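Q: Got a minute? One more chain.
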Amino acid sequence: MSDATRRVIVGVTGGIAAYKVPALVRLLRKNGCEVKTVLTNAAKPLVGAEPLRVLSGNPVYSDDKSAHYDMDHIRLSEWADLLLICPATANTIAKMAGGIADNLLTTLTLSIHESKIIVVPAMNCVMWANNATQSNVGTLASRGVTVLPVGEGELACGVRGPGRMAGTEEIVKRVMDRFNASENPANAALKGKNVLISSGPTEEPIDPVRVITNRSSGKMGAALAKAALSMGARVTVVSGPASEPPPSGANVIRVRTAAEMAAEMGGRFAEADICVMAAAVSDYRPVVSSNIKIHRSEKENITLELAPNPDILAALGAVKTSKQFLIGFSLESGDGVDRADEKMRKKGCDMMVFNTADTALGGNDIAMTLLLTDGGREAFPSMDKTAAAGVILGKAAERIGKGIQKSV
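A: Always. Here it is, folded:
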């Protein structure tokens, strides 16, 4: 596919975020895409057709039959390489899930292959969290439609929460990544794969203001998520309270404690083709957590009784199938590569990333050794975590592609 054939239809529905679409069209054009736009009737009061016509250099399509011939949906589907529905309201998502075609845009969604559709939701946080909306989003994803995660923050209605449309630059990046992957097979090594990543530290409460935690920043998990997205994967990140946010293209599940992370990872693991346990999980938690702040005493010591947290990696390894690839991290304070190898086999991993706390935890770089169940062992000099993430997932994709027998 050449740049000249990067043809994108932007379908605009009646969400307030429609005002951002002219900037999106302009950025798509700047990145070499040819763009046509389709407006629903609900979108017309929110974004002018004339700016879209000027910025796209093409007519604006709508349900006004006086302006266009009756077979627009067929002509447009034949023309397009990609259909980008942005913003996508809960109403349009529901219509797509139910196969309803009551306007030009929804008819167009039935006239183009699901793999060519990207949906960018934007709505009130309560509407987004509604079970019907989540079920509809899941239905679209199961059919091969790409549904971008929503952002979190202040919404147009004045409340804060998840429901914001993904950023314009992030949307364009996902579009370009899709084209690049189709043009260069190396960029599509994980296309169609589900990648599940744990990231950041966990926190175990001592009282309402004090916790047991560690110095993990979440930078490695975020880098892995970015690398997986760039390789064409669908990415879910289960993140503790990390200082480095995961990329907006990933589905992010926020947790705090090791028990919460164990529940979320365990509940999503069956759908994962590749799972990377990159989080620095607290090994222990207080047996008793106070509901009120423990006040300081000048005369008495405080003793904390600690209990072990669930071993998430071992639990995942115990239920892993031969079709799944499980990657663990072994963080040691010294030269413990042999211990990392033993840990890999004991916990049912297919690959273990050995690194040391003094070179990795909280920093931008990592020096690592990759261990494989067939005895493969490759050491890498210190590199930034973005590059390291590409190496780790590239090795995993290579192993999966070769069909090498993995541990079960």
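A: The chain has two domains: 3-183, 188-289+306-401.
Q: Perfect, thanks.
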